[in-house]
Amino acid sequence: MFKKVELGNSSLVGSKDRKVLRARAVKAFSLNDSQADSLMPPKAAFSVAKLAGTRHTLYMADADPCLVVLHDGLIIPTIYALWNAPPVFPELKIHRQVLSYIMRGAHLMIPGVLNWSDSFQAGSLAVVTLVGSTKPVAIGICQNPLDDNGELKTSGRALEVLHHYGDGLCKLSPKPFPCPDLGDEHAASEEGATDKTVHSQNDNNAAIQSDGCDSCSATIEGNSETQIVTGEGVAHSNVAEPQAVAESTIEDITESVENMGMHEHSLDSKNTVGESVRFAVPLVDLTLRICFLQTIHNVTDDKLPMDISALYSQMNADGTKIVSKSAFKSLVKEANMWDDNVCTENAGALISYKNSSFKKIAKMFQAWAKEGLISMKEARGVTTVVQIHRSSEAYVKFTPFNIAKEKEKDAKKVDKIVVRRLLAFSAGQRKDLAALGLHIDNKPMGVDQFKKIVIEHISNEGSVILDHMNKATQYHQIWRGDESAPICKGPAQPVTVSVEPRGNRKHITVVKGLFNYLFNEDEDSILETLRRKFASAVSVNNGVISIQGRVPVKNELVDHFGLSQQHIKLL
């Protein structure tokens, strides 16, 4: 479900909305206060964003994904949140080998579950854990454990996997992995082992992105009939055998996950990993600047305004690829800042704003704004980049790196809106037409169809056709893609756009009649799209949309919503 995830603009969650979200989670997951605090840390800064191309909503706790509200209203916690919380959901135990199939897109089948029983309730949420570990690696919806005869099933699907370790949600966090509290009584004495696990996970996460795990997922995605048996290996499956490199990569990763909750009590001191690599602050500042220039060269104006957190996430993705380039190493050496630890494995520390002189992400972008590279806007605690100054000296002088880009999915198709004109005739009019040999039904018919009938049976003179059309009652029907709205009487009224003053030289842009054309789209999603596009407050009252400021909404209605110029009237 979350193979590839892109965040839209995010906004901070207010205290009132946060209480509502907490109450919703408590009710959905049957949590007590302690569990709710672990799942939604009280001191964390919560933000919310739409997942681009979907109707899913993601809530972030600080920089980590926390809760996801799916398009159908179902709310689920992320793997990050589950690692930091006590056990909340029923657990399905599996062997490590089974996880490799889940990570490639397969649902969990009954033969792969070690503790399968009739205690699992159909339709309820459950998590998947590895043998010897309490840390969930996947979450999904349980399937009915009983067959039609009331007997326990021994084959078929056990869990519809919604979110798993290593998918797009896990990659959203700036840090490859959180360092969860493993809750082990020996955690203090085994701090080195925990550090080793984190480093191993960093390496493996990079391996996922470079060794083609996505291609494996594409091969097996949606295959709900994967058969997995318990034991030391994985038996017969109708899934094609993955490449050896991808197989070994995933096995290494699953092993590192398994080790997160399994402590060996016979650790040698030589296996203890010391502190993570630390880079000089000027080197981190230089790297962040290079990543920033690389990223803004790839951001087109139609993607603006963009939240600074989303832009920073893209910087992280680009930076991981940049640090391995010889051209980047040359730039660092020319600045006399070279460090032998500069490599892809240490990219996370090298492009972290926390290791820079800025310390805060907002200050970092403010410095670049003062330099004249970008323009920013802050509204209700959310800072966005509204313009990239492509004529600035630093932008012009910078030559972007030639980095391999992931194949993006086709852009979302915009369904063009078509208004179909219809005509209907009264009983007297139909009687007159019948006398001319033209039999018309009492139901509304398309204008083109009526013209064709008149030309074939009465006359092809325009005045005659127009005369009959003027006698008819007009109707219209709005089509958007393959969907149509109910037939309405009268001609279609255009969407009106006006700018009204609001005192102190302030204005609002008023849009009326838009919802008549966007009949198959959720009202909240329309408002969120406008809010994200113009970085302005947007409200609706009795179908009338008000946007703060004087904004070019006409282009957005045409490009994003599919209206034609003739459907829009500027007042």
TrEMBL record:
Keywords (A to Z) from UniProt: Cytoplasm
UniProt domain SUI1: residue ranges: 495-549
Gene Ontology molecular-function annotations: RNA binding; translation initiation factor activity
CDD domains: PUA_eIF2d-like (cd21156)
BP GO annotations: formation of translation preinitiation complex
Signal sequence interval, chain numbering: none
Protein name: SUI1 domain-containing protein
UniProt organism field: Babesia gibsoni
